[in-house]
Amino acid sequence: MELEVKTLDGAAAGSITVSDEIFGLDPRTDLIHRVVRWQLAKRQAGTHKAQQRSEVTGSTKKFVRQKGSGGARHGNKKAPQFRGGGKAHGPVVRSHAHDLPKKVRALGLRHALSAKFKADGLIIVDVASAEEAKTKALAARLANLGLSNALVVDGSEIDANFRLASRNIPAIDLLPVEGLNVYDILRREKLVLTKSAVTALEERFK
User: Fold this and answer.
1) What ranges in the chain are assigned the alpha helix state H?
2) How much of the chain exceeds pLDDT 90, in percent?
3) pLDDT band of 191, cuts 50, 70, 90
4) Residue 172, H or E segment
5) N or C, which end of the chain is more exposed by having fewer CB within 10 Å?
6) pTM: predicted TM-score of the whole model, two decimal places
């Protein structure tokens, strides 16, 4: 399919042919959902921890006489039912990551790209570069494209001035094409790809 190419100032810059196998699929939300769950689970720290009964400092001496008190026959203050006792079946340090086949991850990325195109949220630009690292100037150029909430994806090499100018603009993210992922695509309203990023994606999914 043919997609229109624009400049960062909003002017026309020709067109580019893209693969229907990447941008023309009928999006499957179940695949996209699986990949997002895999991403979010993988990045969880998993450092939550509660002290078990064996880890709490406390006396094991029987603290009440066996008979006559009317109470139960307790012998350890570290039991979970007492204040300061250990947590029964509490959380432990662990990894939340789970396996997801590589083919499913790749397919989920293609469906996310297709979903963005189908929702009119995909913009192709010729280059993502700036003459100087000025946030105000870059914000004005992005406003010409109607971008206030977007993910900008460039090729392997990101222009240094563009990176410096964009990092202080709210809701504007910048990634190299190798870092493109489903979650970041979905969390922004618009997806901006440079021509070099599109070429790299075509090569990646060939």
Assistant:
1) 20-23, 29-42, 102-118, 135-144, 160-166, 182-186, 195-204
2) 83
3) very high
4) strand 172-176
5) C
6) 0.83
- Spatial contact of 58 and 84, defined as CB atoms under 8 Å apart: yes
Using DSSP, state whether 154 is helix, strand or coil.
Answer: strand
Walk across the sheet containing 2-6 and list its strands. Answer: 12-17, 2-6, 122-125, 190-194, 150-154, 172-176
Place of tokens 């229907």: 20
Q: What is the mean pLDDT of the chain?
A: 93
Of 133, 116, 113, which Cα lies nearest the Cα of 177? 113
| Whole-angstrom distance, CA of residue 29 vs CA of residue 44 | 23
- Model confidence over 121-148: pLDDT tens digits? 999 999 999 999 999 999 999 998 889 9
How far lies 96's CA from each of 32, 42, 87, 99, 186, in Å? 19, 6, 21, 10, 22
